[in-house]
């Protein structure tokens, strides 16, 4: 018994620590921009099999106590199941349907194996319940039914298991949202298979080893058997779902073991009519069986359905943990689920398993289950998030527009506008000519195609089958998953700032000499328009309101359809403030701005990134069609982009390459953040930062040294990146609501370079659209920067230009050179 207790504590401790460590490792790699370690979870599963399965195997074979041996067998089987299920996490999270299909098949196979290998011999006499005969639940694992009888209706034990599972599902119905139709169906199949696995592990034969004494003692069954079963369920929970989805189940599933023990105690009591301990089981005579396995299957299956079907594993991430987003609501659901599981254990234990308790009738159990089912439906349709919110597919076509030979035109804005119009015409013509057949076919299949022209592509509904069909079409180059953020019960509170407006230009503006440009050269950026694609912009902020260009084509929100500039996240307001904000926070306070929302709750998708980049090439009015209603003459001059599209959002390294090439051909300068995944070399990887026609910006601190977080080159293919540096640590700028705050990141550095370009083009309008000369001036006038040194070393982490680029942007020198040119 002491060995069993120690083995159980070791199993719980090792499993919890290894699962948390694996998830944290995944998150650190994601935040650092490093490649996902495919072998991580298979290794964790193998370690669990060896380090947990070894003691369990010893308990299953060596002790004399049948209860201890049953504990060892259950833990060994659960550890083996975890090892096999852990292998499935090698499937990339972006392919969730494939993972769920594999999970369903693997869990169902494991359930069949456990059921086939379960011991069928009768328990020792000392372990049999009082009055045990041929129908003893310890004999063969189930109460026997008379010949010719079959189970037609669920008994009260099964119904109470169903009711308990629905109670555990309620928190997820409230806070979660379903994915696509296929994804939901596969999640339901996987949950059913996992319920069958739990029912096979915790069948009547298992519980019979803890149902001892004359008469049987339900309290011992619930307490001791519940503890043993809880350890087994913890191991099963650790293997359920992609990395992150298993964490709430580690809290919720183990306490349900006590409720299952109480259900079995009820099954034993109902098995024999009062006063007839040696007679045939009452429920068995009616053809209902004892219901223990079925009750466990329903309770566990419905409990795991919540995190499997109603959350996206890619959204259970620290990247969204800064506000009340999916991680917060998953934690809420897990906390409520834990409370429900404890209440189930206490309630079932008191109402169903206490000595002298009267077995409940099938009618009471059925009414309870039906009431909870109706409640779940009401919650889903009311405070929940009804509907399907699955991912979409981005179909990239082979043929992209030929933009060679676009005439340069006259210098300045007139030439830029002519180039933009020609680029827009060629892009739209290519999309219309090459997409027609595919659009019609997708429309016929009711897959809701959305055409794009900046990259010749179509976004559409569809799962793995549609993806395979599209990939086989001759006009299709590749098919990517376009992420779709699932809704949450309540929007996150708006991120504001608690700092007042500065009394003088902020330190970063002074470092790059922008304040001298205003005072000595009389240039503030007037006549130039800066475009921002980000989380949005608070258009009412006193530092930004006057700079908004206005009109019906200066704001676009493809996520929520807002008609006026707005921002709840704060990131976009901060970056626009650093580019064009008044009150001493912006580099070009005289320039105007237009905005587009491409980040929703800090996540994006390749399609929505394209939505905003298209809007920047050819703005259109609300409700307009980008392919027919675009106005290239209204395009902004320079774009600030403090975002990147990593694989977790569905992008590959080349998906946005035609988009930035088209913008460059149109004479629109794209400025992009290098990323915050330093100090690793080669960490500038997420589009659009690696592209050669993008001006990529890293960050320095007050000491003019590259910050440790600033991403380094070389970019994929060996190109030297970043191009320039700008202040990116403790940068003060605007936040929603009228306040100010300091933030860190290459996101903060990027808009300052865009602001310098606005100053240059305002000083010399002939430079507008001349990207080559503008780049040359910026590089030639940049100031030297210091290379940061990693802690514990004496050398920079990466060499030369792959860390510092051309140096720190110098607004004063650049504007003087632009004016002289």
Automatic annotation (TrEMBL):
Gene3D superfamilies to which the protein is assigned, alphabetical: Peptidase S8/S53 domain
Domain of life: Bacteria
Active site feature: 534, 571, 747
Biased composition (Low complexity): 123-141
GO biological process, one term: proteolysis
An annotated Gene Ontology molecular function: serine-type endopeptidase activity
Entry keywords, A to Z: Hydrolase, Membrane, Protease, Serine protease, Transmembrane, Transmembrane helix
Residue intervals passing through the bilayer: 38-62, 74-92, 98-118, 154-174, 186-208, 220-241, 247-268, 289-308, 328-352, 364-382
A Pfam family this chain is assigned to: Peptidase_S8
UniProt-annotated stretches for the region Disordered: 123-151
Keyword Transmembrane helix: yes
Limits of the Peptidase S8/S53 domain: 525-783
Nucleus as UniProt keyword: no
PANTHER family assigned to the protein according to its UniProt record, in alphabetical order: CELL WALL-ASSOCIATED PROTEASE, SUBTILISIN-RELATED
Family from the record: Belongs to the peptidase S8 family.
Name of the molecule in the record: Subtilase family protein
Organism this protein belongs to: Micromonospora coxensis
Lineage of the organism: Bacteria, Bacillati, Actinomycetota, Actinomycetes, Micromonosporales
């Amino acid at each position: 018994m002491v060995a069993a207790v120690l083995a159980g504590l070791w199993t719980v401790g090792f499993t919890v620590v290894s699962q948390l460590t694996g998830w944290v490792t995944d998150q650190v790699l994601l935040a650092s921009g490093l490649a996902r370690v495919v072998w991580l979870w298979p290794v964790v599963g193998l370690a669990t099999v060896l380090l947990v399965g070894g003691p369990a195997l010893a308990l299953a074979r060596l002790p004399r106590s049948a209860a201890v041996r049953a504990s060892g067998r259950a833990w060994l089987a659960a550890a083996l199941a975890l090892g096999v299920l852990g292998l499935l996490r090698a499937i990339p999270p972006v392919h969730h349907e494939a993972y769920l299909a594999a999970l369903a098949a693997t869990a169902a196979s494991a359930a069949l194996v456990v059921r086939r290998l379960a011991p069928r011999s009768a328990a020792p006499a000392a372990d049999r319940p009082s009055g045990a005969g041929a129908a003893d639940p310890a004999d063969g694992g189930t109460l026997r039914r008379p010949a010719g009888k079959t189970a037609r209706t669920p008994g009260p034990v099964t119904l109470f298991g169903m009711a308990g599972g629905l109670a555990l599902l309620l928190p997820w119905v409230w806070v979660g949202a379903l994915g696509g139709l296929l994804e939901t169906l596969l999640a339901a199949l996987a949950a059913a298979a996992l319920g069958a696995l739990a029912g096979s592990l915790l069948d009547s034969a298992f519980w019979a080893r803890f149902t001892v004494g004359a008469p049987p003692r339900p309290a011992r069954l619930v307490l001791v058997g519940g503890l043993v079963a809880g350890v087994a369920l913890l191991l099963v929970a650790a293997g359920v779902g992609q990395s992150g989805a298993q964490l709430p189940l580690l809290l919720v599933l183990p306490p349900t073991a006590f409720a299952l023990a109480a259900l079995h105690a009820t099954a034993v009591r109902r098995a024999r009519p009062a006063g007839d301990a040696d007679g045939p089981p009452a429920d068995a005579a009616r053809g209902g069986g004892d219901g223990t396995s079925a009750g466990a299957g329903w309770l566990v299956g419905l409990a795991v359905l919540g995190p499997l079907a109603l959350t996206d594993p890619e959204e259970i991430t620290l990247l969204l943990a800064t506000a009340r987003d999916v991680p917060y609501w998953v934690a809420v659901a897990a906390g409520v689920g834990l409370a429900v599981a404890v209440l189930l254990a206490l309630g079932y234990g008191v109402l169903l398993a206490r000595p002298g308790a009267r077995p409940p009738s099938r009618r009471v159990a059925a009414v309870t289950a039906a009431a909870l089912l109706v409640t779940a439906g009401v919650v889903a349709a009311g405070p929940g998030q009804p509907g399907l919110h699955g991912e979409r597919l981005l179909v990239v076509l082979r043929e992209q527009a030929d933009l060679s030979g676009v005439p340069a035109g006259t210098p300045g804005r007139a030439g830029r506008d002519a180039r933009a119009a020609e680029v827009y015409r060629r892009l739209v013509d290519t999309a219309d000519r090459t997409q027609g057949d595919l659009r019609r076919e997708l429309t016929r299949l009711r897959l809701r195609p959305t055409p794009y022209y900046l990259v010749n592509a179509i976004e559409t509904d569809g799962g793995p089958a549609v993806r395979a069909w599209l990939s086989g079409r001759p006009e299709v180059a590749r098919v990517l998953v376009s992420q779709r953020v699932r809704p949450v019960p309540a929007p996150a509170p708006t991120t504001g700032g608690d700092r007042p407006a500065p009394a003088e230009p902020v330190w970063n503006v002074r470092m790059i000499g922008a304040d001298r440009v205003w005072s000595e050269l009389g240039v503030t950026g007037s006549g130039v328009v800066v475009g921002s694609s980000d989380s949005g912009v608070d258009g009412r902020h006193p530092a930004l309101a006057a700079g908004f260009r206005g009109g019906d084509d200066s704001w676009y929100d493809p996520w929520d359809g807002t008609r006026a500039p707005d921002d709840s996240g704060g990131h976009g307001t901060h970056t626009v403030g650093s580019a064009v904000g008044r009150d001493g926070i912006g580099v070009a306070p005289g320039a105007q701005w237009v905005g587009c929302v491409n980040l929703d709750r800090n996540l994006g998708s390749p399609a929505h990134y394209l939505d905003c980049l298209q809007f920047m090439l050819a703005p259109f009015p609300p409700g307009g069609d980008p392919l027919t209603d675009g106005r290239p003459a209204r395009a902004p001059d320079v774009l600030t982009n403090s975002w990147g599209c990593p694989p977790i959002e569905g992008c590959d390294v080349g998906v946005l390459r035609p988009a930035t090439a088209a913008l460059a051909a149109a004479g629109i300068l794209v400025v992009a953040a290098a990323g915050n995944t330093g100090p690793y070399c080669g960490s500038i990887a997420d589009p659009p930062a690696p592209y050669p026609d993008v001006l990529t910006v890293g960050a320095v601190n007050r000491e003019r040294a590259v910050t440790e977080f600033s991403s380094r080159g070389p970019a994929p293919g060996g190109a030297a990146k970043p191009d320039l540096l700008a202040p990116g640590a403790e940068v003060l700028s605007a936040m929603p609501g009228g306040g100010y705050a300091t933030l860190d990141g290459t996101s903060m550095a990027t808009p300052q370079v865009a602001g310098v370009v606005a100053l240059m083009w305002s000083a010399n309008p002939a430079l507008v659209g001349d990207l080559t000369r503008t780049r040359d001036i910026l590089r030639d006038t940049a100031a030297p920067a210091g290379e940061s040194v990693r802690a514990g070393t004496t050398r920079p982490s990466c060499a030369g230009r792959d860390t510092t680029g051309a140096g720190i942007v110098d607004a004063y020198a650049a504007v003087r050179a632009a004016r002289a040119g």
